[in-house]
TrEMBL record:
One of its GO terms (molecular function) is manganese ion binding. GO terms for cellular component: apoplast. It comes from the Eukaryota. Belongs to the germin family. It is found in: Secreted, Extracellular space, Apoplast. This is Germin-like protein. Keywords: Apoplast, Manganese, Metal-binding, Secreted. The keyword Ribonucleoprotein does not apply. Coiled coil: none annotated. It comes from Aegilops tauschii subsp. strangulata.
Length: 90
């Protein structure tokens, strides 16, 4: 539950996201554009609490990645991560 999986992909690599897992892509090199092709196994993805999955993942998603994705300071990300854990906000 709320697992964080990370993989660096190279040209031609494939990554399959487990069913029900929140996912995102991050290109660490802004000078080398990346292309992703996605396919879904269902048009009905169900419901997932995004805040718990993103800020309460195990292990945590990098502060740098989250700060950039949400365009906020790292201390804001630290505060948000402190609000979410297994026994809180279920």
């Amino acid at each position: 539950r709320n697992k964080f999986l990370s993989k660096v992909l190279n040209k031609g690599d494939v990554f399959v996201f487990p069913v029900g897992l929140i996912h995102f892509q991050f290109n660490p090199n802004p000078h080398k554009p990346a292309v992703a092709i996605a396919a879904l196994s269902s048009q009905n993805p169900g419901a997932i609490t995004i805040a718990n999955a993103v800020f309460g993942s195990d292990p945590q998603i990098s502060d740098d990645v989250l700060a950039k994705a949400f365009q906020v300071e790292k201390n804001t990300i630290d505060w948000l991560q402190a609000q979410f854990w297994e026994n809180n906000h279920n």
